[in-house]
Write a structure and sequence with these properties.
InterPro entries: Ig-like_dom, Ig-like_dom_sf, Ig-like_fold, Ig_sub, Ig_V-set, IgV_Light_Chain. This protein is an all-beta fold. The protein has no helices and 10 strands.
Length: 129
């Protein structure tokens, strides 16, 4: 029997979130759906739309997972690069204004909040943690 888990997704306004506080990001908003219900083993894709085109990877999208009571954890950086320790069932893709995070074979431990945010290629990934 499959367990049903909910992934709660939030609309993210860039200049308010996470640890890229060194930058004053203005004018770009990323929008995500609020909730998805997913069965264990299912492949799920979470979309993220930007209000402006993100050209090349001078500015890219990063994906974070947050579980209740825990700090956000970096999963994907530079749109599609897997952070060390991120399971291979996670992948990122996209360009322009449309980006996505895919979980191939959703597990109950994948339940949580997922955030997309604009990031910069000149940031070392250790600064994103």
């Amino acid at each position: 029997m499959n367990h049903v888990s909910e992934i709660f997704l939030k609309r993210v306004i860039l200049k308010r979130i996470l640890c890229h506080a060194a930058f004053s990001v203005k004018g770009v908003t990323l929008t995500q759906p609020k909730v998805k219900t997913v069965q264990q083993g299912e492949t799920v894709t979470i979309g993220c739309k930007t209000s402006q085109t993100l050209s090349s990877c001078g500015s890219c999208v990063s994906w974070y997972q947050q579980k209740p009571g825990e700090a956000p954890k970096l999963l994907i950086y530079y749109t599609s690069s897997l952070q060390s320790g991120t399971p291979s069932r996670f992948s990122g893709s996209g360009s322009g204004t449309d980006f996505s995070l895919t979980i191939s074979g959703f597990q109950t431990e994948d339940t949580g909040d997922y955030y997309c945010m604009k990031s910069y290629k000149n940031l070392r990934q250790s600064e994103s943690q």
